[in-house]
Design goal:
heterodimer; A: 229 residues; alpha/beta; Rossmann fold; Arc Repressor Mutant, subunit A; 5-stranded parallel sheet; 4-stranded antiparallel sheet; 8 helices; 14 strands; globular; B: 457 residues; alpha+beta; Beta-Lactamase; Helix Hairpins; Heat Shock Protein 90; 5-stranded mixed sheet; 11 strands; 16% strand
Chain lengths: 229, 457
């Protein structure tokens, strides 16, 4: 089945070029040049993924992201400016699944789109795995894709869910950043790439930094993370 | 404060002047005293010749009982008629009295003396010397002293002045507060603006004033609003420029991807070249924008505490990861917990640019060594970040110039290793904005050492 991708970017020429590039890769592509329309189309349910530029006329990129996330888990890859750490981190915190800095190599764009879609596919499949994972005060039910802490439901993005799953499946063991990026973001770790750190930070915030006085997710500097809670 | 000081100065001066004036004042006495002494004197002069010394003494005793004045009568030979010794200064005063008509006095004595001369019916001159024994230089709040004396006046004045002084003092204090509080407020606003809190404004209370200070407050508010909007406009502009300059590069990138797909093998190297040049352009845009932002100074407003150790470690990790691709490494040789005050992005940029430059130049298989340590001199502590590579170093005659924008050491390898020639100038600018210093020197056993010094928090 051909998957449809929505591009939300005000640069019409770029949209044409990207469409031309993605179609032979097996995707159907639609573009939209304005924020509000972008939100509407994204929520229409026709698309498997959206590529969203951070700078848009009308509603700005982050607002669009926020509004889509408010009612949908639609996979989103955000296009940011090279070297713009702040906006990239904000995007990931609001709930973008991954990012790519402009200007980019289109091969990278395809790789990230594929990775994000693969992850989304896995989560659909895992829905039927029928497993409840309980570690400390956290319970993960992969049948309903819900996470709760001491009975209270916590709302996580798709990426955060996968990341937590990986961490809980190996409690007390060090998981390297390279492995986490590969298995959660489905791509290679690139230099100066802090996206996995941002997702960990988001998880910490949502689940609580400490559990019974110990740090829930410990950072092992230069290596990776351990779930210690 | 000033008003209070002025008032005190005035009071003290007038007090001193009064004391001196009175001390200097001579031969002045209240009229009733002059009259009384004149009468006593004439009566005594008449009595001595008519009734003799005993009668005069009796008369003087009566006077003393009634008015407290102790009197002496001095004849033409300077002798006291009843044989009593004159008080100190009495004979001189009597001399003076004979030469002058009217009352003379000597206020310098313990008890002031007054004297008046009178002629007896037989034509002899007698001098009455009077001492007011009721006059006491007692405690201030004792008898007020003779009417007309300085002390009397002083006490009278103080009695009415004290309430004035008290009220005046309270008023002065209130006035001082009224003036200094708004000035402190304005000062606070100015400091916050300088620290980067551009939304700070003068308090409403100050704005409501209708005096010059109120006007000043309103003007300061206008100024703060203008600064805020100018800085925001510039930040927006730089953001827009970044976006606009990168759009054609973004389109080019995708078009390049399409070209690669469609082109044959022989086109590959040319396409690679196009890609590389696009990369260079992109990097240059990024760095020029960074340099502009740093130069404009509007970034240096948000000062926070920076954990230098943490920052250097992060940069080293990332650079090491990148360096491994090219068979080189970055490691931290020495580390110390140090903090500085500054803009984290700028310091990170500075360290990153120096380290990446070092990675580009260090020999294959070698490592770039970082040290973080503290230096002390004149009671100031400085953080020292030292980056050492194992490359070819830089010729001594041009080593000062490497921090200039676009400067490249004239070397083929330099261009091939990438970089834009802007990295070190960005580092230099960022370091200088933090009142630090940066310098480069060739290491003894080959390679370049770049030292960044920053004042410690």
């Amino acid at each position: 089945m051909i998957q449809r991708i929505l591009i939300i970017d005000d640069d019409t020429e770029l949209c044409e070029l990207v469409t031309e590039y993605l179609e032979p890769e097996g995707y159907a592509v639609d573009s939209v040049n304005e924020g509000r329309e972008g939100v509407q189309r994204a929520l229409s349910g026709e698309y498997a993924l959206a590529v969203l530029d951070y700078m848009l006329p009308g509603l700005n990129g982050f607002e669009v992201l926020r509004q889509i996330r408010a009612s949908s888990h639609l996979p989103i890859v955000m296009l940011t400016a090279r070297g713009d750490d702040v906006n990239r981190i904000i995007g990931l915190q609001i709930g973008a699944d991954d990012y790519l800095a402009k200007p980019f190599n289109p091969l990278e764009l395809v790789a990230r789109i594929n990775a994000v879609l693969r992850r989304a596919r896995f989560s659909v499949e895992e829905k039927h795995a029928g497993e409840v994972l309980t570690v400390g005060d956290i319970k993960m039910d992969s049948r309903t894709r819900t996470v709760s802490r001491d009975g209270e439901t916590i709302d996580l993005t798709v990426v955060e869910y996968s990341l937590l799953e990986k961490l809980l499946q190996a409690p007390g063991r060090i998981l390297t950043r390279e492995d986490l990026v590969k298995e959660v973001l489905h791509r290679e770790l690139s230099p100066f790439d802090r996206s996995i750190d941002t997702h960990v930070s988001n998880l910490r915030k949502k689940l609580g930094h400490e559990v019974n006085g110990i740090e829930r997710i410990k950072t092992v500097r230069g290596v990776g993370y351990i779930y210690a809670g | 404060m000033w008003f209070g000081l002025a008032m005190i100065a005035a009071a003290v001066t007038s007090f001193i002047v009064g004391v001196i004036a009175e001390r200097q004042a001579r031969d002045v006495a209240p009229p009733h005293l002059v009259q009384a002494l004149g009468i006593y004197s004439q009566t005594a002069a008449d009595m001595i010749e008519r009734d003799g010394p005993a009668a005069v003494n009796a008369y003087f005793d009566r006077i003393e009982t009634l008015s407290g004045v102790h009197a002496y009568l001095v004849d033409e030979n300077g002798k006291e008629i009843s044989g009593e010794t004159l008080p100190a200064g009495g004979s001189e005063l009597a001399q003076r009295a004979r030469q002058k008509t009217g009352l003379v006095n000597d206020l310098t004595q313990g008890i002031p003396l007054n004297a008046v001369a009178a002629k007896s019916p037989k034509g002899a001159t007698y001098v009455l010397v009077a001492q007011d024994s009721s006059f006491r230089r007692g405690p201030f709040w004792g008898l007020p002293g003779r009417p007309g004396s300085f002390r009397f006046t002083l006490i009278a004045i103080t009695r009415s002045l004290l309430p004035i002084l008290l009220v005046g003092g309270v008023f002065c204090y209130w006035l001082a507060r009224y003036l200094s509080t708004p000035l402190e407020d304005l000062r606070g606003v100015a400091q916050e603006l300088a620290d980067g809190k551009l939304d700070t404004r003068v308090s409403d209370k100050l704005l409501k004033r209708r005096d010059e200070i109120g006007h000043l407050g309103r003007d300061v508010n206008l100024m703060a609003a203008r600064i805020e909007s100018l800085v925001q406009a510039q930040r927006r502009l730089l953001g827009d420029i970044s976006h606009e300059l990168r759009s054609p590069l973004a389109r080019q990138g995708v078009a390049l991807g399409l070209a690669r797909r469609r082109a044959g093998a022989d086109a590959a190297s040319a396409l690679d070249r196009i890609e590389r040049e696009g990369e260079r352009l992109n990097e240059m845009i990024g760095q020029l924008l960074t340099l502009t932002r740093f130069e404009s100074g509007t970034d240096g407003l948000d000062n926070v505490t920076i954990d230098l150790g943490g920052l250097v470690r992060e940069v080293a990790e990332d650079a090491d990861y990148e360096a491994h691709d090219r068979n080189r490494s970055v490691r931290i040789v020495r580390d110390e917990p140090l903090s500085i005050n500054g803009v984290p992005e700028m310091i990170r940029s500075a360290v990153e640019n120096v380290v990446r430059n070092a990675v580009r130049h260090t020999a294959e298989g070698s490592s770039v060594d970082l040290t973080l340590s503290a230096e002390s001199s004149n009671g100031h502590r400085t953080a020292l970040i030292s980056v050492r590579d194992h490359g070819k170093g830089v010729p001594e005659d041009v080593i000062e110039q490497i921090f200039r924008p676009f400067y490249r050491v004239e070397d083929d390898r330099d261009r091939k290793t990438g970089g834009t020639g802007l990295g070190l100038s960005i580092a230099a600018r960022a370091v200088r904005l933090h009142r630090g210093s940066i310098k480069a020197m060739n290491a003894k056993d080959g390679g370049l050492v770049v030292e960044i010094r920053l004042p410690e928090k």
